[in-house]
Amino acid sequence: MPPGLRRCCRPPTRGFRWRHLRTRSLCAALRHMERLNICSRKTLRHRHTPLISEESPVENAIGIIGVGSMGGALLGRWRAANIHVVAYDVTQAGRERASAHGVAVAANPAELAAQVDAVAVMVRTDAETLDAVLGDDGALAGLADGGLLLLHSTIAPSTTTQIVAAAQSRRIDVVDAPVVGVPAVVEAGRAVAIVGGSQQAFDRAAPLLKPCFRDAIHMGPTGAGNAAKIIKNLCTAAEALVLAEALRIGESWGIDYLDALAMMTTVDQYHFIDHWSTAFDANGYGSAPLRVPNLYDKDVPLARNIAHAAGISVPITEALADSAQQIVAATE
């Protein structure tokens, strides 16, 4: 077996683990191993590094900017791990939430950053993130050279790269680590962090991610965590939007939407994400979907046709039918 590869994608351990997604070199190694009948590609989709050891260095203190429901949940996890926390929030409710945890509240992000080794930002928008970090009283104004920034918000990769550019001359490590999970899941320590940044920054951030997340997946360089979270949310939203349009088609043919939903939860549902190797190439050659018999060339066009027959507008189905036609044409 080539050096650095494991036979199983999941180590036989529980708790926090950190991952690196496969690279082209890993794909090449897998193809070589399959030719030698050493192992199956399905068992090596991810390469794992070992669990963080108890001896891993942890920053002495962390500041959290944004103490809403999500930021408050992160704050609680760090407090439970006996990590010193300083907080800041623009709202009175956020400041009171921090105080309820027994945490000192700073007057602004710069004052907060001056008291800690690492700063986590959990605000809602790109503009709020830039203001919290790069504003006149932003975190960079107070954070010491060589500090650490963790950007937990779902923001554009370009926002993260802008912050990295501003921090680089001062040797401040930056990771984008958006969170997958609602506040209750974060509070229970079951959320996942999807991380972008250098290997050095990821390794340094890992001990601070460990108390908060059951898993941290290193997707690649700066901005990769942002992009990964965005495409994950795109798929989540797309499922709801497609379902809504499908229910409208059903209603146009006299099917009550509640009956349609009950039917869909009763029949044997097939989710491509659970069986992705049947829909996408598992060899690493490209992300174009494979042709699935009947689904793209017959069933999706049928959905568009019965919508047309009922006289309703279905823009998502129209786009899906066009895409399906392109897939069929490309695979004939």
Brief overview:
The protein has 332 residues and is of the alpha/beta class.
Q: Indicate the CATH topology of the largest domain.
A: Rossmann fold
Low-pLDDT residue spans: 1-16, 21-58
Got a strand count? 11
Question: What is the name of the CATH class of the largest domain?
Answer: Alpha Beta
Radius of gyration: 23 Å
Share in β-strands: 5-15%
Total count of helical runs of at least 4 residues: 13
Q: Biggest sheet, open or closed, and with what strands and sense?
A: 6 strands, parallel
Note the topology.
Blueprint: E1 17-21, H1 24-35, E2 46-48, E3 61-65, H2 69-80, E4 84-88, H3 92-100, E5 104-105, H4 109-113, E6 118-121, H5 126-134, H6 139-142, E7 148-151, H7 157-168, E8 173-176, E9 179-180, H8 183-187, E10 191-196, H9 199-209, E11 213-220, H10 224-252, H11 257-266, H12 295-310, H13 315-331
Parallel strand pairs: 1-11, 3-4, 3-6, 4-5, 6-7, 7-8, 10-11
Antiparallel strand pairs: 1-2, 9-10
